[in-house]
Amino acid sequence: MLYLLTEFSDGGGAFNLLRYLTVRAGGAFFTALIFGFMFGRPLINFLRVKQGKGQPIRDDGPQSHFAKAGTPTMGGLLILSALLFSTLLWADLANPYVWIVVLVTLAFGLIGFADDYAKVTKQNTKGVSGRLRFGLGLLIAGLATYAAAQFHPPDLANQLAFPVFKDVLLNLGIFFVPFGMVVIVGAANAVNLTDGLDGLAIMPVMIAGGTLGVIAYVVGNANYTEYLGVHFVLGTGELLVFSAALFGGGLGFLWYNAPPAAVFMGDTGSLSLGGALGAIAVCTKHEIVLAIVGGLFVVEALSVIIQVLYFKRTGKRVFLMAPIHHHFEKKGWAEPQIVIRFWIISLILALIGLATLKVR
User: Fold this and answer.
1) Nearest 5°: phi and psi at 157?
2) Contact 253/202 with Cβ under 8 angstroms?
3) Burial degree of 236 (CB within 10 A; 0-12, 13-18, 19+)
4) Cβ partners under 8 Å of residue 143, min gap 6
5) SS3 string of 36-93?
6) Burial group, residue 249, by CB count within 10 angstroms (0-12, 13-18, 19+)
7) Mean pLDDT over residues 173-190, rounded?
8) For 7-35, how does the pLDDT look when each residue is reduced to its tens digit (9 = 90+)?
9) Would you tell me the crossing angle of helices 130-151 and 96-122 to the nearest 10 degrees?
10) CA-to-CA distance for 293 and 135, rounded, in angstroms?
11) Nearest-CA neighbor of 176 among 282, 83, 314?
C-alpha cells in the first residue's frame, strides 16, 4: 500500500526510498515484529479466557506434555495478522505473485483455524475431518499453482527446474498443476506435523522463509540471474517483502512460544505457514530446493509415513513414536535439546539450499 506513495516521487526524497525492494522488506520485517510484540500478550490473554482448558493433549503422547495442559492454541493468529498486515502495507499490491502467496496463506490459515476451533470446543484432538482438510488444501493449491503458471515466463510455464543443472528443464505440461498441489499441500502438512514442541516449528519456518525470500529476490533480478545462471522470473522479487514480514512475525511469536510456551501456534499457524512456503517455491520455480531448505519438515513427514506403513505391514514400529521429534523425547532427550538441535539442522539445510544458486 505504501508503494503507491512512489507516484508522488520525482526521483528524490523519502518517497523514492519506497522504490527500493530492500527498504520495503526491512520495513515489513520491523512492522511485523513490532506488531507481534504489541498484540502478542493481549491476544494470549484473550485466547486463554475464551478457550478455558486450552489445546487438548494427546493421551498417547509423551508424559511430559501433560504439564502443558491449559496452554491456549491458535497463536498462529498472531503470526498471520502481523504477516498479512505488514505485507499489505509494504508490498507492491499490483504484483500477482504477492496475491497468490497471500491468498494461499490466508486460505490454509482458515482451514487451520476451523480445525483448532473444533478441537478446543469439543475438547478432543480430532478436529476437522482429515479428508476435508486435505481436499480443501488440494483445491486451494491447485488454483494457486494454475494462477502462478499463467504469470510465469512462457519458456518456464509448466516446467520443472532443477538446482545445480542450469539448463535442465522438465516439461510437466498438464501435470504441473498436480505437482504444485503436492508441493503446497505437502509443505503445509509437513510443517503441521513438525509443530509438536515449543518453538520447534516456528524457527525452521522462519529460516526456510528467509531463505526462499533471498531466492525470490535473486530470481526476480535479471542481473543476478544472468550472473548466477538461474532462471529469471519477473516479479518474484516482491516476495522478499512477504518473507521479511514472515520472519518478523515469526520472531514476535517466538517470544511467547519459547519453552515453556505461553501459546501454541496450532494448525492456524502451521498449515498457513507451510502453505506459504510451498506457494513461494512454486512461484519462484524452486520446488526441489524447497525440499532441501525445508528438509527437516520432509524428515518429519517421512517418519510418520514410514511408521504407519511399517506398522500396517508388520505390526511393529520403526520409531518409538512419530513424528520423529517424539522419538527423541522417548529416548530421553530434553525438549529444549531437541528443539535447538533441529534448529541447527534447519540452518545447515538452508545454507545448502542457498548454495544451489551458485553451484552450477
Assistant:
1) -60, 130
2) yes
3) buried
4) none
5) HHHHHHHHHHHHHHHHCCCCCCCCCCCHHHHHHCCCCCCCHHHHHHHHHHHHHHHCCC
6) buried
7) 97
8) 555 555 667 778 889 999 999 999 999 99
9) 170
10) 26
11) 282
Tens digit of pLDDT for each residue in 247-281?
999 999 999 998 888 999 999 999 999 999 999 99
Chain centre to alpha carbon of residue 263: 18
* Residues in contact with 166: Cβ distance below 8 Å, sequence separation at least 6, in sequence order: 229, 230, 231, 360
Closest CA to 213 of 297, 94, 87: 87
* 3 state SS for the chain: CHHHHHHHCCCCCHHHHCCCHHHHHHHHHHHHHHHHHHHHHHHHHHHHHHHCCCCCCCCCCCHHHHHHCCCCCCCHHHHHHHHHHHHHHHCCCCCHHHHHHHHHHHHHHHHHHHHHHHHHHHCCCCCCCHHHHHHHHHHHHHHHHHHHHHHCCCCCCCEEECCCCCCCEEECHHHHHHHHHHHHHHHHHHHHHHCCCCCCCHHHHHHHHHHHHHHHHHHCCHHHHHHHCCCCCCCHHHHHHHHHHHHHHHHHHHHHHCCCCCCCCHHHHHHHHHHHHHHHHHHHCCHHHHHHHCHHHHHHHHHHHHHHHHHHHHCCCCCCCCCHHHHHHHCCCCHHHHHHHHHHHHHHHHHHHHHCCCCC
Q: Domains of the chain: which residue ranges?
A: 24-355
Indicate yes or no: pTM above 0.85. Answer: yes
Q: Between the CA of residue 254 and those of 57, 78, 113, 208, 320, what are the distances in Å?
A: 21, 11, 19, 15, 28
Q: Three cell numbers at 251?
A: 520472531
Instruction: Select from 30, 3, 34 the least CA-distant residue to 16.
Output: 3
